[in-house]
Amino acid sequence: MFSIQNLSEKEIEETVDAIILAIKISALLHDIGKLRKEWQESVGWKEGQPYIARTSNKRKVPFHAPYAYPFLKAFLRNIFGGYRVLDVIASATARHHSLEVTGRVKEDDFTLADESVVNFLSSLLSKTVPELQGYNLDELIQCCIEDTNKGSPMDEPPTPSDDFYFIYTIANRTVKFADWEDAGNEIIELPEIVGEEDDT
């Protein structure tokens, strides 16, 4: 059972910061499956061109979301350690389109569009996640690609009685919002909770 009772205030703050960063990284890499050669070619990408991120032709496009689970599970564990909460965040990310999606990936089913993918991801992370400075991102990404290609069994999401269920739902919703914002090229404003005005 997860408990923060024995943690100091500083340790709690560091844990929260790490979880927020893990969700940020997950939102950034949630569409990792779109960098597969099969997905890119299905939407008309040709070698030497910029990668394609979106398409309106949904009938002919292979699935992409499940690959986020094994890739992010490996990536987050390499950064933060072997904590189950990271697997929960990776699982929530793989379900950013549907709660029916699992992280099940077949062995040798993560063939990249081309050799530039590793450099592309490394550059993206370097520019957007300053907390990762000091890591050899090329090496880390290559390691995670290899882990993803080992295949992964179906992941089991936490149940509502699980201590990590709240983090699972927050991570899933955060990635969904990030995806919607990117698709619409706009910021989604959540309604503010307005209380009674203070007359003092």
Brief digest:
The protein is an all-alpha fold and 200 residues long. The protein is 48% helix and 0% strand.
Question: What is the N-to-C succession of helices and strands?
Answer: HHHHHHH
Number of helical stretches of at least 4 residues: 7
Sequence stretches where pLDDT stays below 50 over 5 or more residues: 187-191, 193-200
- Give the DSSP E fraction (strand runs of 2 or more residues): under 5%
Tell me the distance between the termini.
Answer: 45 Å
Average pLDDT number:
86
Number of domains: 1
- Which class do the helix and strand fractions yield? mainly alpha
In helices, the fraction of residues equals: 40-55%
Description:
Helix content is 48%, strand content 0%. By secondary structure, it is mainly α. The protein has one domain. Helix 1 (9-28) runs parallel beside helix 4 (84-94) and helix 3 crosses helix 6 (137-149). Residues 187-191 and 193-200 have low confidence and may be disordered.
